[in-house]
Automatic annotation (TrEMBL):
GO terms for biological process: defense response to virus. This is RNA-directed DNA polymerase. Its EC number is 2.7.7.49. Keywords: Antiviral defense, Magnesium, Metal-binding, Nucleotidyltransferase, RNA-directed DNA polymerase, Transferase. It comes from Epilithonimonas zeae.
Length: 321
């Protein structure tokens, strides 16, 4: 099968040279060449704190480079399917899809891939574009635009989709191994979950699972490998399983209720940063835990009835407008 036919079958734009690409994205050939050759100069890098207190490197492309990356994402990458076991960063998916398959299991095995994006180097990205039908020149061009310092940057809109596509083989190998043992498997970016009703069976797969992951060019973060049975708190990507269902859990609910209650302590002095932070949490809870979302709305209403002259009225009016 020729490359042109393969691209046509996949519904991808037929790009054979720099002129084709320049025409499609409405940018000069020289601009594209410079962005590709010197892409590292078009990033802003900074660090944010992880939950464990360590720092995560963020590499954010500038407006022009990000615009090209978004074009590549929408016109090439998003037309390609990832494995059915990949549950993150796909249109129509939410973090709930990563938890739902596991809710009827008695025990969980959670493992984490160390330095996930940095482990996906330019060669892997180049091979991805080459495999879908692009020639050497265009595969190199697309790779340069989508990578930073020889790996996927945390901050590019293309990185999540590229990582999912590159992990197709690993996902298939993991499912092929654990599926025949009756073990359920999902992956949300670098967070991998296995579940079963048989604890011994689940623990026994870890050595070979690690072998597959290493063979695919990744490394386990052994400090984040954890096994939990039914008598312990079973958590997947921040959501807690309980009574054959899942949600944010009682601990997180108490934290959010505390944030809500803080608005009863001030009058006409709304902390807008705290307010928008809470709005973000409420939107997230609405998408993953409707029961607790409704209970928070009732809590806001109750606090407003008791403290109508405090800043809780801002929350109440927002959710009752």
């Amino acid at each position: 099968m020729t490359s042109t036919i393969r691209l046509k079958i996949l519904g991808l734009p037929n790009i054979t040279d720099l002129e084709d690409f320049a025409y499609l994205i409405n940018l000069s050939k020289n601009s594209i060449y410079q962005l590709s050759k010197n892409s590292e100069y078009y990033y802003k890098t900074y660090q944010i704190a992880k939950k464990n207190g360590k720092l995560r490197d963020i590499s954010q492309p500038n407006k022009q480079l990000k615009g090209i990356q978004l074009w590549i994402l929408n016109n090439i990458l998003n037309k390609l399917k990832v494995s059915e076991y990949s549950k993150g960063f796909e249109k129509g998916q939410s973090i709930s899809d990563n938890v739902r398959p596991h809710i009827f299991s008695n025990c969980l095995l959670n493992i984490d891939i160390k330095d996930f994006y940095p482990s996906i180097n330019s060669i892997k990205v180049y091979n991805l574009f080459k495999s879908i039908g692009y020639n050497n020149l265009i595969s190199t061009l697309l790779t340069n635009i989508c990578t930073y310092k020889n790996s996927l940057p945390q901050g590019s809109p293309c990185s999540p989709k590229i990582s999912n596509l590159i992990c197709w083989k690993m996902d298939s190998r993991l499912q092929g191994y654990v599926g025949k043992k009756g073990i359920i498997f999902t992956r949300y970016a670098d967070d991998i979950t296995f579940s079963s009703i048989m604890p011994d069976k689940l623990i026994g797969v870890l050595p070979f699972v690690e072998k597959i992951i290493i063979d695919e060019g990744f490394t386990l973060n052994k400090y984040k490998t954890r096994f939990t049975g039914k008598l312990r708190r079973r958590e997947i990507t921040g959501l807690v399983i309980y009574d054959n269902n899942f949600g944010i859990g009682r601990k997180k609910l108490r934290i959010i209720r505390s944030k809500v209650y803080n608005f009863t302590k001030t009058t006409d002095n709304v902390n807008h940063k705290a307010l928008h932070h809470l709005y973000g949490w409420m939107n997230y809870i609405k998408s993953v835990d409707e029961v607790r979302y409704k209970s928070l709305l009732e809590y806001i209403k109750l606090l407003y009835q008791k403290n109508p002259k405090t800043d809780i009225k801002t929350l109440y009016n927002y959710y009752n407008s």
